[in-house]
Design a protein that fits this description.
Length: 182
Amino acid sequence: MSYPPPYDPNQAQPPQPPQYGQYGAPVSPIQQPAKKSNAGMIIGIIVGVVLLLCAACGVGGWILYGKAKDKAQEIVDTFPTMDVETGKPGGSHSVHLAVEGSGKTSITWNAGSGGPQTETVTLPWSKDITVDQDTFAVSVMAFDTLDDSTKFESCSISIDGTERKRNDGNDISVVCTAIFMS
Protein backbone atom coordinates (compact mmCIF):
# COMPACT_ATOMS: atom_id res chain seq x y z
CA MET A 1 0.00 0.00 0.00
CA SER A 2 1.32 3.38 -0.84
CA TYR A 3 0.66 6.55 1.00
CA PRO A 4 0.79 10.07 -0.30
CA PRO A 5 3.91 11.97 0.49
CA PRO A 6 3.84 13.92 3.71
CA TYR A 7 2.54 17.44 3.53
CA ASP A 8 5.14 20.09 3.09
CA PRO A 9 3.83 23.60 3.84
CA ASN A 10 6.46 25.09 1.50
CA GLN A 11 5.13 23.21 -1.45
CA ALA A 12 2.06 23.97 -3.52
CA GLN A 13 -1.26 22.61 -2.40
CA PRO A 14 -1.62 18.92 -3.06
CA PRO A 15 -4.20 17.97 -5.70
CA GLN A 16 -7.72 17.74 -4.26
CA PRO A 17 -10.12 14.98 -5.21
CA PRO A 18 -12.94 16.23 -7.51
CA GLN A 19 -16.11 17.48 -5.81
CA TYR A 20 -19.55 16.35 -6.85
CA GLY A 21 -21.22 18.73 -9.33
CA GLN A 22 -17.97 20.03 -10.81
CA TYR A 23 -17.11 19.60 -14.46
CA GLY A 24 -15.58 16.20 -15.04
CA ALA A 25 -16.62 15.03 -11.60
CA PRO A 26 -18.52 11.84 -11.18
CA VAL A 27 -22.33 12.15 -11.12
CA SER A 28 -23.91 12.12 -7.73
CA PRO A 29 -25.91 8.98 -7.12
CA ILE A 30 -28.77 11.14 -5.77
CA GLN A 31 -30.38 13.19 -8.56
CA GLN A 32 -32.96 15.95 -8.31
CA PRO A 33 -36.41 14.89 -9.52
CA ALA A 34 -37.29 16.23 -13.02
CA LYS A 35 -39.63 19.25 -13.05
CA LYS A 36 -43.15 18.61 -14.36
CA SER A 37 -43.89 20.13 -17.76
CA ASN A 38 -46.63 22.77 -18.01
CA ALA A 39 -47.14 22.11 -21.75
CA GLY A 40 -50.40 20.19 -21.26
CA MET A 41 -51.95 22.91 -19.17
CA ILE A 42 -50.86 25.63 -21.63
CA ILE A 43 -52.27 23.71 -24.61
CA GLY A 44 -55.53 23.15 -22.71
CA ILE A 45 -55.87 26.85 -21.95
CA ILE A 46 -55.20 27.79 -25.59
CA VAL A 47 -57.76 25.25 -26.87
CA GLY A 48 -60.32 26.52 -24.33
CA VAL A 49 -59.83 30.14 -25.39
CA VAL A 50 -60.13 29.21 -29.09
CA LEU A 51 -63.35 27.26 -28.43
CA LEU A 52 -64.76 30.17 -26.42
CA LEU A 53 -63.97 32.61 -29.24
CA CYS A 54 -65.58 30.28 -31.82
CA ALA A 55 -68.72 30.01 -29.70
CA ALA A 56 -68.88 33.80 -29.26
CA CYS A 57 -68.48 34.35 -33.03
CA GLY A 58 -71.17 31.77 -33.75
CA VAL A 59 -73.67 33.39 -31.37
CA GLY A 60 -72.83 36.86 -32.69
CA GLY A 61 -73.28 35.69 -36.30
CA TRP A 62 -76.62 34.09 -35.43
CA ILE A 63 -77.85 37.34 -33.85
CA LEU A 64 -76.65 39.46 -36.80
CA TYR A 65 -78.28 37.05 -39.27
CA GLY A 66 -81.60 37.35 -37.44
CA LYS A 67 -81.45 41.15 -37.43
CA ALA A 68 -80.45 41.29 -41.11
CA LYS A 69 -83.27 38.89 -42.03
CA ASP A 70 -85.82 41.03 -40.15
CA LYS A 71 -84.52 44.24 -41.77
CA ALA A 72 -84.61 42.66 -45.26
CA GLN A 73 -88.23 41.57 -44.71
CA GLU A 74 -89.09 45.07 -43.49
CA ILE A 75 -87.66 46.55 -46.70
CA VAL A 76 -89.47 44.01 -48.90
CA ASP A 77 -92.74 44.80 -47.11
CA THR A 78 -92.44 48.47 -48.13
CA PHE A 79 -92.31 47.62 -51.87
CA PRO A 80 -95.53 48.28 -53.72
CA THR A 81 -97.40 45.18 -54.82
CA MET A 82 -98.33 44.68 -58.46
CA ASP A 83 -101.58 42.79 -58.65
CA VAL A 84 -102.78 41.71 -62.08
CA GLU A 85 -106.40 42.75 -62.64
CA THR A 86 -108.63 41.39 -65.37
CA GLY A 87 -111.57 42.98 -67.12
CA LYS A 88 -113.57 42.92 -70.35
CA PRO A 89 -111.62 43.07 -73.59
CA GLY A 90 -112.64 45.67 -76.02
CA GLY A 91 -110.72 48.64 -77.19
CA SER A 92 -110.35 51.52 -74.79
CA HIS A 93 -110.38 51.70 -71.00
CA SER A 94 -110.88 54.76 -68.80
CA VAL A 95 -108.21 55.19 -66.11
CA HIS A 96 -108.49 57.50 -63.10
CA LEU A 97 -105.32 58.32 -61.12
CA ALA A 98 -105.48 60.16 -57.79
CA VAL A 99 -103.08 61.27 -55.05
CA GLU A 100 -104.54 62.58 -51.77
CA GLY A 101 -102.60 64.78 -49.37
CA SER A 102 -101.45 68.37 -48.93
CA GLY A 103 -98.58 70.52 -50.18
CA LYS A 104 -96.64 70.79 -53.42
CA THR A 105 -95.10 67.74 -55.06
CA SER A 106 -93.82 66.22 -58.25
CA ILE A 107 -95.99 63.39 -59.63
CA THR A 108 -94.85 60.90 -62.24
CA TRP A 109 -97.49 58.72 -63.88
CA ASN A 110 -97.60 56.24 -66.71
CA ALA A 111 -100.44 54.31 -68.38
CA GLY A 112 -100.24 51.92 -71.30
CA SER A 113 -97.45 52.14 -73.83
CA GLY A 114 -96.92 55.89 -73.44
CA GLY A 115 -93.82 57.10 -71.69
CA PRO A 116 -93.82 58.50 -68.15
CA GLN A 117 -95.28 61.96 -67.61
CA THR A 118 -94.19 64.29 -64.79
CA GLU A 119 -96.19 67.17 -63.37
CA THR A 120 -95.55 69.61 -60.54
CA VAL A 121 -98.83 70.00 -58.66
CA THR A 122 -100.50 71.01 -55.41
CA LEU A 123 -102.26 68.11 -53.65
CA PRO A 124 -104.89 66.70 -53.88
CA TRP A 125 -104.43 65.72 -57.56
CA SER A 126 -106.26 63.51 -60.05
CA LYS A 127 -106.00 62.67 -63.72
CA ASP A 128 -108.43 60.91 -66.11
CA ILE A 129 -106.96 59.27 -69.21
CA THR A 130 -108.03 56.73 -71.83
CA VAL A 131 -105.86 53.71 -72.70
CA ASP A 132 -106.52 51.97 -76.05
CA GLN A 133 -105.00 48.59 -75.13
CA ASP A 134 -106.38 45.38 -73.65
CA THR A 135 -103.26 44.71 -71.53
CA PHE A 136 -101.34 47.54 -69.89
CA ALA A 137 -99.58 48.75 -66.76
CA VAL A 138 -100.48 51.88 -64.81
CA SER A 139 -98.45 53.65 -62.17
CA VAL A 140 -98.50 56.87 -60.21
CA MET A 141 -95.67 58.01 -57.92
CA ALA A 142 -95.39 61.14 -55.80
CA PHE A 143 -92.23 62.12 -53.90
CA ASP A 144 -91.56 65.01 -51.55
CA THR A 145 -89.00 66.98 -53.52
CA LEU A 146 -90.35 70.51 -53.50
CA ASP A 147 -91.87 71.32 -50.11
CA ASP A 148 -90.90 69.95 -46.68
CA SER A 149 -94.50 70.40 -45.49
CA THR A 150 -95.92 67.97 -48.09
CA LYS A 151 -97.93 65.08 -46.62
CA PHE A 152 -99.10 62.07 -48.65
CA GLU A 153 -102.30 60.37 -47.50
CA SER A 154 -102.91 57.86 -50.31
CA CYS A 155 -102.88 57.11 -54.01
CA SER A 156 -105.38 55.15 -56.08
CA ILE A 157 -105.86 53.70 -59.56
CA SER A 158 -109.32 53.01 -60.98
CA ILE A 159 -109.86 51.27 -64.31
CA ASP A 160 -113.27 51.36 -66.00
CA GLY A 161 -114.85 52.75 -62.81
CA THR A 162 -113.47 50.01 -60.49
CA GLU A 163 -110.75 50.84 -57.97
CA ARG A 164 -107.89 48.43 -58.73
CA LYS A 165 -105.19 49.71 -56.40
CA ARG A 166 -104.93 51.90 -53.27
CA ASN A 167 -101.86 52.49 -51.10
CA ASP A 168 -101.34 54.64 -48.03
CA GLY A 169 -98.68 57.31 -48.18
CA ASN A 170 -96.08 58.47 -45.69
CA ASP A 171 -94.12 61.68 -45.09
CA ILE A 172 -91.91 61.27 -48.17
CA SER A 173 -93.78 59.31 -50.86
CA VAL A 174 -96.73 57.32 -52.11
CA VAL A 175 -96.68 54.77 -54.97
CA CYS A 176 -99.45 52.81 -56.74
CA THR A 177 -98.93 50.30 -59.55
CA ALA A 178 -101.41 48.01 -61.31
CA ILE A 179 -101.28 45.66 -64.27
CA PHE A 180 -104.50 45.21 -66.26
CA MET A 181 -105.23 42.30 -68.61
CA SER A 182 -108.46 41.88 -70.58
